[in-house]
Amino acid sequence: MSATREPRDGVRMNDVVIVALIVIFAVLPFPDEIFRARGLLLVPALLPAAAMPFRRRWPLVALGISLLCAVAAAAAGTISPSALLAAAFGCYSVVDRRGRGIGLIAVGVAGVVVFFSNGWALAGDFLDSTALQFVLFVVLGGALGDAARSRREFAAAMIERAERAERNRDDEARRRVAEDRVRIARDLHDVVAHQIAVISLNAGVASSALDDRPERARAALTTVRSASRSVLSDIGGLMSLLRSDALDDHDELRPQNGLAQLDALVDGFRRGGLRVDLRRNDDGFALSPASDHVAYLVLQEALTNAHKHGLGGTVTVALRIESAALHLTIVNPTRNVSPASPSPGNGLRGIQERLGAVRGAVHFGSDRGVFSLEAWIPVDGVDTP
Length: 385
Known about the structure:
The chain has helices at 13-27, 42-51, 59-75, 81-121, 129-209, 214-243, 250-253, 262-271, 289-309, 346-357; strands spanning 275-281, 314-321, 325-333, 361-367, 370-378.
């Protein structure tokens, strides 16, 4: 049965039409005497009309009253067209309101009752066409009721499917908004975090060396100025991306640095006071643009963490090809002497997500005062081992 809300029961125009038809068939002077209702026979002929307005709420009751009136007329030797017409409408309502299972049983029972009651009225002539045509009317009423029910359920299914599709679109829109928020936060972290770290550290150096070593303070302030300009440029590019409606321009607006800019990245940290030991053995390979950008971001985040949280201001960076993958290793002393792996912050979580997007892998942790980060990025579309 359909779960749609059905209209409120009450007297409708079609009820008036059905009642009028039953009354007309009850009093109509048929040529054949067997169809005429006179005297007390008008009671079973007209009674089904009173039950028709309630056939939607109580269809089985309306059908039962109609069949009883038909049987009562047959017992008096008369076939009541009005009662049989009401039985056909009752079969329609039962199938329409109670479903196909109950409806088939009700139509079958009604057909049998009409067949035998008409045969009784015709003195046992069960194969008379007059008796059989009313059986066909009852069956036709049930078939039309099934068609109406199927049409209503189909319409309800279409409405439900449309509503579900609309809910899915809303869910998809919310999911995309959430993904965009994560992407914006990740990009903002990528373009800002390491520059802010450089600014903070060099501002501290300049503050401590301003009186005793003005040259060092001047150099630190120069680095602060350079990093400030860089971060303002990066933020401007990101804001242009967020304000742009043209999706085709996104690739141009998003920062897409790669390993070609690694030397400039390392020089920036060196100017900030971090001693970087860079070891490269990664010639003769090609990364996809996405993988190249991810490799750059991994090194950027690792150097930023070494600069902010490292001990001694030193870090070792190694790049090499290993098992059809680019292997990145970043090692630096750390203040964390616990052997347990540190809980990942936003930067490390961002590395994990970005490497997962290019089918890469990462492992990091602290052991005996040394923090290490290792990342594997597939080369030429080959997965990491």
